[in-house]
Structure formats: C-alpha cells, structure tokens
Amino acid sequence: MFNRTNKDKKKNICLAGLFGLLLSSAALPAPDRTLPLPGGRPGAEEIARQVYFANHFFAFENFSIKRRGRKMAALITMDADGKLITTGVERFLNNAYEGSGVASRDLSVFRTGKLRGTGMLVTEYTDSEQSSKYSIWLPSIRKIRRFAEPELDALWGGSVFTFGDVTLRRPEHEIHELLGEKTFQTCLGVIESLEGKNYQLVDKLPKRTCRHVNKRVYGLKSTPRFEEWWYDYRISFVDTENFADYRTVYYKDGEMVKVIDRDWGVVTDSGTDDPRALFWKSWYGVDLVSGRQSWAVIPQEVIEFNTDTPSDFWSEKTLRRLKR
Predict the structure, then answer these.
(1) Residue 144: CA atoms inside 13 Å, Cβ hemisphere, count?
(2) By CB neighbour count within 10 A (0-12 exposed, 13-18 middle, 19+ buried), where does 103 fall?
(3) How far apart are CA 30 and CA 95, in angstroms?
(4) Computed over its alpha carbons, how large is the radius of gyration of the chain?
(5) C-alpha distances in angstroms, 311 versus 61, 131, 157, 232?
C-alpha cells in the first residue's frame, strides 16, 4: 500500500479521526533494563517507555545482528527514479552496564556499499540530562572522529530512517497522548518491485506480511518538544501485549510526510517469558515528500542474543580493527 504515488499512499493510510479519547501524563526519564511490564492499562508516557524498551532490546543483556558467512542484514534504499543502493550491516547492542552510569552501547558496522568499513559506536547514559557519545571510524583516513551526539534528524546510513528513528529518540523528547485502542487493519509495506525476489546478502527478500492484522494496538500520538522540527507529530500503532510498534506515521502541516513499518518477530529460546523479547524482521520506510524508500531486512539466522562477548568489544578499539 506504500508503493504507489504519494497521493495514493496518503489515501491508503486513513489515520485521521481513528482514535478518540486523549490521555496524557508527565514526562519521565528514559527506561532501562529494570522497566517492568505495566500493571493494568498503561498511560501514554508508560506506553512510550515500553516501546523504547522493546526497540532497544532491553529484554536481553546483549543483542546482535551479525554476519553469517555471506549472509547479513541488508539496508536497501530506492530513490524516486528507482535507483537502488544496498548496504550490508552488522549491529551489536550491549545493555549489561548495571551501576556504571551507562545505559547501553550500540556498535554498527557497514560491510558493503559506499559506507563499507565505516563503524559507529553510540554510548547512551542512564542520566537523561547527559548527551549520548558518538564515535565514528572513517576508513578513508583510518581515524576516529568523536561527537557529543548525532542530530536526531540525521539520516542513518543514508536511508530514510533517522538516528532518532533507529536509536536516539527518547520518550522525554516528545509529549505523548493516548488516542485509544483499535484493531490493526493493514498489511505492512515493502519495496513493491523487490518483493519476494532473490537478492544479495539475504538470499531472498520477504513478501509483505499481513500477520499483524487484527492485533489490538494503542494509538500513540507523540509531539516533539523541539521547535521547528521536521515533523509536527507522529502516530504509532503499538501492540497492546508486547509493545511492538508496527507502524509510525509522521505529519507536518496537516500532511503525512513519512511512514515507517516494522515487522517484529518473537525470539525463540530467549530464556525469558517477557513478551517484549522480540527482534526486528524488517523495517520499511517511505518519505512521502521525496518518494525515497528504504527497506532493512534482517534474516533470523543472523540474530544472536545473551552471548558471552566481553564488554570491551563495545569500544573504540574494535572500531580501529575494522578493515578498510
């Protein structure tokens, strides 16, 4: 439904007026691994915190999207003219930093494409007042550059996904309103011309999934606290049981400007009965202004979790070992 003209795309995502009752609560600090499941029906802020928990894989001590031979996660971006850019990606998250002041470290490595050999290390802290630390390994000069924190609206890996979308946006960055509860009624988006085709890095791309249809979801409206931001608000469709956010729609000046769909899967043999022990099977995003689309596909066999990887793996030392 997201692969037609911008006009058709907007018609097919009928969100206005979907939810009625507006509820809100005061902002709270970002959650960590100790965040429990809510008792009873959660409020808006609590839902936002639970979504953050799920997307940061806090149900696990560590979580990796790791290359297996020639197979790895693929980040595919198509521009409005149909030109494709494909990048192989590895990502390693560590959440086991209790008592250290560090909430998590996130190491990403681009293995193919124009960004080949580039590595990024993001450190997030338990103190919400402390900015994240960002180190990037630049293979062309074989040096590390350090920044206080990437801009939340900077594009991640040249895709339509921003750093805010992927990792850095915290619940306290927005004001949240609970719009109600509905049944999720649509299939998730894909790049239509590639659907189900054999493809590099992943062997075969999936077809669009409709397996989340009829699941109960919260409607969560989130308005950024920043002035003159690239979106005025976004609406997320969040599973009422495991807090997976299946779809997020961004609005600017009353118009839809971007849609992100996430296909979530349950991690088998996770060793926990926490329903939030999930993994991303894919992300699909479309910029309704430029027509650009991105599709991140993660084969289940490249997933690892709760490994005995030493904590010093998440360091600049690992960045320096990357091959050009």
Answers:
(1) 17
(2) buried
(3) 14
(4) 19
(5) 11, 21, 25, 39
Q: CA 50, CA 171: separation in Å to the nearest integer?
A: 9
CATH (one of 2.60.40.60, 3.30.2350.10, 2.50.20.10, 3.40.190.10) for 6-320: 2.50.20.10
pLDDT tens digits along 186-226: 999 999 999 999 999 999 999 999 999 999 999 999 999 99
Q: Which two tokens stand for residue 261?
A: 């769909």
Nearest to 12 by CA among 315, 298, 288: 288
What is the pLDDT, as a whole number, of residue 255?
98
Task: Name residue, tokens 């062309």.
Answer: 140
Q: What is the pLDDT of residues 121-173, one digit of tens each?
A: 999 888 877 888 899 999 999 999 998 777 889 899 999 999 999 988 999 99
pLDDT (average), residues 88-114: 92
| 85, 76 contact by CB (below 8 A) | yes
Q: Tell me the one-letter amino acid at 152.
A: L
Q: Which residues have CB under 8 Å from 230's CB, separation 6+?
A: 153, 252, 257
- Identify the three-state secondary structure at position 124: strand
pTM attached to this predicted model: 0.88
C-alpha–C-alpha distance, residues 162 and 250, integer Å:
12
The pair of three-digit structure tokens given for residue 250, joined into one six-digit string:
């961004």
